[in-house]
Amino acid sequence: MSDLALTILPETADDRLAIDRLHERTFGPGRYTRSAYRVREGREHVLDLSFTARIGSLLVGSVRLTPICIGDTPALLLGPLTVEPPFRKRGVGSALIERALKHARTAGHPLVVLVGDEPFYRKAGFKRIPKGKVKMPGPVDPARLLVAELKAGTFEGVSGMIRPDWK
CA-based, 20 to 30 A from 78: which of 3, 45, 120, 164? Predict the structure, then answer.
């Protein structure tokens, strides 16, 4: 990423259309059938914990955090995380995750979960959730269900269905 003049900024309401278009380009129409999208459906992400990556005025990436519950335990769902294809593998996604987790930790959130590739997300502190401990509505490969404790020990004893936080 050293060759990029990358700026990470909090998402604003004015970013919505550009981010929607980025999601459309990078994930396509099939994104709506994914289990994580279904959990987020009808639920707003937290603007203060969601970030954009820009090079100059060009939006090149985005990450969002949405409130959920695991059973009765409050948590955040990370995603979608997306980076424009020409800027991938240059640290943009990692920078977005790092910023989002830092702000979530500062705001006192205990846990962040996601569906993703463990080798990539392990660098940010995510680990595989033991099979059967947490479930997500719809089909999800259990090996791709990951959690990051933002405070040590906060995942201990947590189990149940991931569901939207309707509080």
Answer: 3
